[in-house]
Amino acid sequence: MKRYVVAGIAAALTAGGLITGPPPASAGCIEPGWAGHPMAKMCDGPVDDGMWERCMTSFPNGPLNAAESDCYTMSVGDPPKADPVFSTPPTHIDP
C-alpha cells in the first residue's frame, strides 16, 4: 500500500511540473519625476499587436486621498498627443 501512495505522489508532482500556465503578464512601471506629484507612477500594460495601454496614477490631493489615473493606448510610432508626459519614454516600459 505504501508503494502505491509514493507512486501516486511522484506521479502528481511530475504531472504538476509538466502542466504549467504562462507566466502572468506584469506591467513595467517608472516614476516620471514630477516635482508636483512625487508619488506618481507611470505603468505600461502588456503589448498586444504592437499597442499597449499606458496609465499614470497620481495623488494630486496628497497620499491620504484617492488616487487619480489617466490611461492612453499607444504604440512606438503613435504616442498620446493629449499629454507630452505620456510619450516619455516613447517605447514600452518593461518590468
Short description:
This protein is of the alpha+beta class and 95 residues long. The chain contains one helix and four strands, in the order αββββ. The chain has one helix spanning 2-18; strands at 28-30, 41-44, 52-58, 68-74.
How would you describe the overall organization of this protein?
With 95 residues, this protein is α+β, with helices and mostly antiparallel strands. The chain has one domain. 18% of the residues lie in helices and 22% in strands. Strands 1-2-3-4 form a four-stranded antiparallel β-sheet, with no helix packed on it. Strand 2 and strand 3 form a beta hairpin. The longest helix has 17 residues. It starts with a helix and ends in a 21-residue tail after the last strand.
Instruction: Note the gap between the termini.
Output: 49 Å
- Overall body shape: globular
- Describe the largest sheet: 4 strands, antiparallel
Q: If you average the pLDDT, what whole number results?
A: 76
Strand order of the largest sheet: 1-2-3-4
